[in-house]
Amino acid sequence: MKSSRQIKIIEIITKFEVETQEELIERLCEEGFRVTQATISRDIRELKLTKVSLENGRQKYVAFGEKDSSGLKEKYRRVLKEGYVTMDMAQNILVIKTVSGMAMAVAAALDAFGWQEIVGSIAGDDTIMCAVRTVDDTIQLMEKIKKLLA
Questions:
Q1: In whole angstroms, how large is the CA radius of gyration of the chain?
Q2: Is the pLDDT of residue 79 over 90?
Q3: In angstroms, how far is the first alpha carbon of the chain from the final one?
Q4: CB-based contacts of 93, cutoff 8 Å, min separation 6
Q5: Cβ proximity of 92 and 131 under 8 Å
């Protein structure tokens, strides 16, 4: 059920300019899928859907990589820049402090860059802990982040 629903979601956002989760829920209902907002929210995360701006000022959902990925990378860089406060390392753990309420968004941005050094990350309200493969990788990762912030 989940995979067929997610396939249908990709189909819908490819065919229509879906702006909101509510609109996506309505279109899924029309296709025979009964879903909750929480389910849609999880599907959006799992499918790595993002919103892009349209020429008319509206937005729509797209699958990551569907549009110009450099534009999406710029979006994630902006999120990182706007949310970042400081970072420090403890061996192979990178701790990033963010503006209050921004840790989840900054962690999602870090995930979107797909850096191989990061094994996984945990985000709270204003702190992210990234498990990094090695101490050397942690140092390299910090340099990558500093370049993006410059």
A1: 17
A2: no
A3: 45
A4: 129, 130, 131, 132, 138
A5: yes
Mean pLDDT of 13-40: 92
Does this model's pTM top 0.70? My answer is no
Please state, in angstroms and rounded to a whole number, the distance separating the CA atoms of residues 46 and 32: 21
Burial environment of residue 105 by CB neighbours within 10 A (0 to 12, 13 to 18, 19 or more): middle
Check whether 68 has a pLDDT greater than 60: no
DSSP state of 125: S
Mean pLDDT confidence for 17-32 = 94
- The residues, ordered by sequence, that sit 6+ positions from 30 with a Cβ below 8 Å of its Cβ are none
Rounded Cα distance between 23 and 46, Å, is: 18
Average pLDDT over residues 51-68: 74
Looking at residue 136, what is its pLDDT? Answer: 96
Helix pair 37-46, 2-15: axis angle to 10 deg: 80
Q: Does 64 score more than 60 pLDDT?
A: yes
The Cα 66–Cα 121 span in angstroms is: 25
**Burial environment of residue 30 by CB neighbours within 10 A (0 to 12, 13 to 18, 19 or more):** exposed
